[in-house]
Amino acid sequence: MNRPWLDPQLPEPERIQLLLGTMTLREKVGQMHQIANVTSTSQDEELRAGGIGSSLFASGAWAGNQQDAGVRVEGLNAVQRIAVEESPLGIPLIFARDVIHGFRTVFPIPLGQAAAWDPESVGRAAEIAALEAAAAGLHWTFTPMLDIARDPRWGRIAEGSGEDPHLGSILATAAVRGYQGDDLRDEGRIAACAKHYIGYGAAEGGRDYNSTQIGPRTLRDVYLPPFAAAVRAGVATVMASFNEIDGIPVTGSHELIRDLLKGELGFDGFVVSDWGAVGELIAHGFAADAAEAVRKSVEAGIDMDMVSGLYDRHLAAEVEAGRVDAALVDDAVRRILRIKFRLGLFERPYTDPGGGGRIGAIPARREPGIGTMPFPGRDRVSRPTNVQQTPPAGMTQPISIPESHRARARRLATRSLVLLKNTDSVLPLRTPKRILLTGAFARARTELFGTWTLDGQESDVTTIEEALRAALPAEVKLETKLFPDEAVVYGRYADAIIACIGEHPIRSGEANSTGTIDLPPGQLEALKGLRAYGVPLIVVVFAGRPLALPWLADHADAILYAWHPGVEGAGAVVDVLLGNESPSGRLPVSFPRRTGQIPIYYNHRPTGRPVEGGLRGGNRYCDGPDTPLYPFGFGLGYTTFEYSDLRLSSASMRTDGEIEIRATLRNSGAVAGEEVAQLYVRDLAASVSRPVKELKGFARIALAPGESGEVTFRLLATDLAFSRLDGSVGVEPGGFRCWIGPDATRGIEGGFDVPG
Ligand code: BGC
C-alpha cells in the first residue's frame, strides 16, 4: 500500500492529515484504545486489525507498589512488528510505563526530589530515567505528577512536589525537559505525561480517589500552575485525574479539559484517561451506562482510554448513530498521531535489543523472548560492589548501573536529605568508638526505593549498615540490632545510637492513605526505650509523606528526614551523618505537629482574625499550637547563614514591569555549606484576598566559612498575577511585602508598590 505519510520531508500536519484521511472509523477508535500488557500472541488479531493504539506495562494489582516481571525489548518489538508490518496502515504503537522516579537507577521519590530544591538535578534524573527506559523499548512515561498536595494522609503526596505551586511549576518544567529534551525524536528521549490533571491532591480527608471541593480561584492559582508550566515546556501528554471537583469528574469535564487545558493553555498533545476512569464515570453517578460514559469522556476531551476498553466497545457505534460527533474522534486521533510522529515512531518503531536505541527495522521476525534490558552503549561502566549480583527474573545477565547514573542519584539523594534537628551539633558524628545501629531501615534495600519503583533491582542497593561499615574507620565498633529490646540493651553502651525508622513504601503511594500521620505502630515505643540512658539519639526517618514527629522533636538529638531516597540513598545518608556532605535539603511541604492540624500549609489566605497576635496569643486550638512543627522551606545544615541588606532595584513596579530583589548572605559557621535562599511575597490588599505569603523564587548558594555572597531574584509583574474578582488573571496595583529568608516563617523584609 502506498503510504505517503511516511515521507519525513512532509510537514507534520500534512502527514497527520494524509493518514487520518485514509483511516476507517474502526482504525481511528483503535488509536484511542490503550490496553495493559499487550503481547504478540494474545492480542495478535487486534493488532493486525489496527485496533490498539497503545499499551502500558504495569500490573494493576498493587498500583505501583509491587514489582512486575519488567519489560523485554524483544517482546515489545514483536508486538510492534505486527502493528507496523501486518496491519493495513502500519501505525506503530506507543509503549508506556510508570517510570516515576527512575528506571533501573532509582532516584529519591518525587517528594524527596522536591526537597532538594534543585531543578537541574531533577531534570538530570528525568533524563537518565528516559535514557534507561528508552533503551528498554519504552516511548512514554506517566510522569511527572504535578498534584499540589496539602494533606499528608494522602499516600500519593510521595509522588509529587508538595504544597507549593511555584516550586511545583519549576520542577514540572525541569522534569518535562529532562524526559523530552529539545526533540522527542532524539535518542534516549521519551514522552512525558503531566498528571493527574487536576485537583487530585485535594481528595477530602486525604482518602485517595476521593471527591474534592476546590474554588475556581484556588483551582487556577494553586492547582493549575504546574500543569500550565508543563504545557509551556512542551509536555507531550496529560493524564486526566480520577477525582471529581464539585460534582464533575475531571474525566467528563469539558470545561477543564477541552476549554481550559486544550483551549486556554493551548495544549496540543493528547489527553489519556487514568486507569479505567472512563468506566468509572458510572460509579461516579455521572453516566448511566458505558455508552454514556464514552460519550461524556470523548466530549470532555479524553483522547485515549486507558484500559477500560469502553472506547473500543462503544465509540464506533456512538459515532455511527450520530451521538458522538465524528470531528471529536478526528481531533483525538490527530493529537495521538501528532505525538507518534513527533517521537519518530513511524521512522524508527523498534528498539535495538543490543542497546543501540530505536531503530527502523528488525532483522527478522523474533519471538518474544527473554530480553536483556541493556543500557545504552555509552557509559557502560560497572561498579565494584560487595553486594552479590543476582540476575532478577526475566533478565539473562546482571548489568550494572552506569557510574554516572549512580553519581547523579547520589547527588540528588544527598541534596534531598533534610536535617530537622541537631542539638549541640551532635551531627556530623565525631569519632565515636561504638555505634549502635537499629530500626527496620538499617538493613533495608528495596524499601529505600519508595513507591512506584517497577524496575529497580535489589542487587543494586547498598544498605545503611553496609554503607556505614564501609565508611567508618575499622576501629569503630558498629553493632546492628534490629530487635528493639536487644537494641536497648546494646544502646546503653554505645557512644551514639542511629535509629533508621519510618514507614514502609507500601504505606505510601496510590490507594495508601493513612488515617493518622503518626509513626507506624511500635516505633515510638522502641525509640523511647533507646532514649532511656541518655546516649545521643540520631534518628533517620524514611517515609513517603510528612510524619508527625512531636516526640522526636522534643527528645531526639538529631532528626534527618530521608524520604525514600532511592538506590544511592544509603551512601547519601552516611555521607551526611559522617559530615562528608553538609545537609542542604529543605521541606517542600509543611510538617504538622499532629494529624488534626491537617490541612496546614504556609500559603494559606489570611482571615479576619489572624493567628499571629490574635486571640489567646494566636492559638485557636485549645489543645496545642496552631503552627506546623517544621515549616515549609525549613532545613538545617552544618553551618549557619546570616541574611542582611535586603535591596530592591526600585520601590515600585509597573503592572507590566519587573524589579530585582537582592540580599547578602554570610556563612557565619565554621564549615562550608549550601543555603537555599527563598523569596516570598505578599499582596497586601486586592479585589480578592491573597495568601499570607507566596514563594516566588529560590536559589542555592554555596559559601565557605566566613564568606559572603549575594542572591538576586528577578520578580516580574506577571509573577504577581492571580485570578481577580472578575475572573481575569493579572496583577492589581497596591502595596506588597517581600522577604528573603531560609524558610516560609523567617527572613529579612522589604516592600514595594505597584502604582495604579
Ligand atoms: C495511576 C496513575 C498511573 C496509572 C498507570 C493509575 O492507577 O493513578 O498514576 O500512571 O495507573 O499505571
Describe this structure in words.
- The strands form 8 sheets. The protein has a 6-stranded mixed beta sheet with strand order 13-18-17-16-14-15, with helices on both faces. A 5-stranded parallel beta sheet has the order 4-3-2-1-10.
- The protein contains 21 helices and 27 strands.
- β26 and β27 (746-754) form a beta hairpin.
- 54% of the residues are buried.
- α2 (25-31) runs antiparallel to α13 (310-320) and α17 runs parallel beside α18.
- The chain is globular.
- With 756 residues, it is of the alpha/beta class.
- Helices cover 28% and strands 18% of the residues.
- Mean pLDDT is 93; it is low at 365-398.
- The longest helix is centred in the N-terminal third of the chain and has 17 residues, at 119-135.
- Bound molecules: beta-D-glucopyranose (BGC).
- Beta-D-glucopyranose (BGC) is lined by residues 56, 58, 63, 98, 142, 195, 274-275, 510.
Topology of helices and strands:
Elements (H helix, E strand, L loop, with lengths): L11 H11 L2 H7 L1 E4 L7 H5 L5 E3 L16 H14 L7 E4 L12 H6 L3 H17 L4 E2 L23 H16 L12 E5 L18 H8 L1 H8 L4 E4 L3 E2 L2 E2 L4 H11 L5 E3 L4 H7 L6 H11 L4 E2 L3 H11 L5 H17 L7 E2 L6 E2 L43 H14 L1 E5 L11 E5 L25 H8 L5 E4 L3 H8 L4 E7 L20 H9 L5 E6 L7 H6 L2 E4 L7 H10 L36 H4 L22 E8 L9 E10 L5 E11 L10 E10 L4 E9 L5 E2 L5 E2 L3 E10 L2 E9 L2
Parallel strand pairs: 1-2, 1-10, 2-3, 3-4, 5-6, 6-9, 14-15, 14-16, 16-17, 17-18
Antiparallel strand pairs: 7-8, 11-12, 13-18, 19-20, 20-23, 21-22, 21-26, 24-25, 26-27
Helix pairs in contact: 1-14, 2-13, 6-7, 6-15, 7-9, 10-12, 11-12, 12-13, 15-20, 16-20, 17-18
